[in-house]
Amino acid sequence: MKRRASADLGFWMAFILNLFFQSEWLVLALIFLGLHHLFALPLFLFWAALVIWVLIALFITAFLGWVSSGPDRNAVQGQRTSERLRRKKEESEEK
Predict the structure, then answer these.
(1) Following DSSP, what letter does each residue of 42-90 receive, concatenated?
(2) Which pLDDT tens digit goes with each residue over 8-43?
(3) What interhelical angle do 24-39 and 44-68 show, nearest 10?
(4) Coil, strand, or helix at residue 16?
(5) How far is Cα 58 from Cα 15, in angstroms, rounded to an integer?
(6) Residue 71 near residue 80 (C-beta atoms within 8 A)
(7) What is the pLDDT of residues 30-78, one digit of tens each?
(8) Which of 68, 58, 74, 72 has the alpha carbon at shortest distance from 7?
(9) Radius of gyration, CA atoms only, the chain
């Protein structure tokens, strides 16, 4: 149970870090908010930029989490090599 909790914590920490790395969308949202107050620009542009910022960060974090949870190709290749060597050794012992 503790392992699951730490995995969730890792996702949220990565998400927050990714929000920081994608902060140019926050700057864009703040610019739209300033333009709304100065020139009566529609407020939905501010909210759209915020939603896009969060969704991009969430998608990137989820994608990187999914990619990193896949099987390790080097470990699989090493396992195949050791199985092949074991079979080769067994064949040579049979002869």
Answers:
(1) -THHHHHHHHHHHHHHHHHHHHHHHHHTSPPHHHHHHHHHHHHHHHHHH
(2) 788 899 999 999 999 999 999 999 999 999 999 999
(3) 170
(4) helix
(5) 6
(6) no
(7) 999 999 999 999 999 999 999 999 999 999 999 998 888 877 666 666 6
(8) 68
(9) 25
